[in-house]
Every structure is written in structure tokens, then in C-alpha cells.
Fold:
Amino acid sequence: MKRWGAPRIAAVSVGLIMVLLIGVLATRRNAMERQRSSPLVGRVAPEVAGPDLLNGGRARLSDGAGKWILVNFFASWCVPCAKEHPELVKFAAAHQASGEVSIFAVVFEDQPKGVKAFFAKRGGGWPVVDEPRAAVDYGVTGVPESFLIAPNGVVVGKLTGGVRLASLETTLARFKAAYAAANASTTVAP
Structure:
């Protein structure tokens, strides 16, 4: 019986590792599935309320009831948050006239001074609250993370990582169409 030798053992080992890696990658959830990977999807969004760091007064998520709301968890120290912020500013501007979509930001492990400087430099005028309990309620473990809430207050999607305007608009359009179809099928004609 011939002995295998170190080169053959190494080659077989590398081959097995490659097969395992391919198996893991092939069975991994795609980006769309990861968007929905929150136990909140399909449930009423938890209320978030607190002092509005930019506009003064108190802001509540429920103040936006009846419209689409993008709840964005962010931090001023977060590089992907800084990259996505101009996209959020464009998104807010694109929907400002219709008033059917708004952004509600929640500070994640940050200081009010840093948040105010972040917005002063990058723009944006939506409510920004510092309510640490909200991250727990939404299951946020890192930023940026966003949740899309339908006009009926139900979370319809979760977006992890920095958002881009085009993909955000596509996602919104898809959920709006599904929402309209669901409501049309439950509406009784007079």
C-alpha cells in the first residue's frame, strides 16, 4: 500500500474546505431575504419617542401615522451612515412635496453634540431622537439599519447597511404596490 504523502493530504484538505465554503455560500440568504430578516416584519412598529435633537420639542414615531416612514438608526461616528446620509437627504427631498413618505432617525450610541454637528454638515431636517431603548425594541445591533413602516403602522421591511436612493425607491415602490393590492382585496365595494 502506497503512502499518501503531505502534498496529497494538503490537496485533499484544501478541496474539502472549498466544497464546504461553496456549500455555505450557496445556501446563504440573499440580500432581499436579509432585508426581511427581522421578527418585526409583519408586526406593528414599536413606538419611539424622545426629545428631537434637531428641531426641539418632542418627536414620536406615531406622529407620522398614515404615511410611509423610514426609521433610520444611525450614528455620527459611523462611516457607512455618513455615506448613506446624502441618499437619505435626496429621498426626503423627493418625497417632501407629496408628504406621503417621511424619515424618522434614531441615534445609536452617540452624543447629541456629535449628532447635531453631523446634520449641520450633511443636511436633513427630519426628526432625530435619542432613545436607547428603541435599538433594543427594534433588535438593532449595528448601524446603519432602517425599517420601512407602512401607513397602517406595520413594519414591512428591514434594510441593513447603507441605503442608496435608487434601491430605496425600488423597495418603497414594491412595498407600496403590495400594500395597495392587499388593501384593495380587503376593501368592500359600496
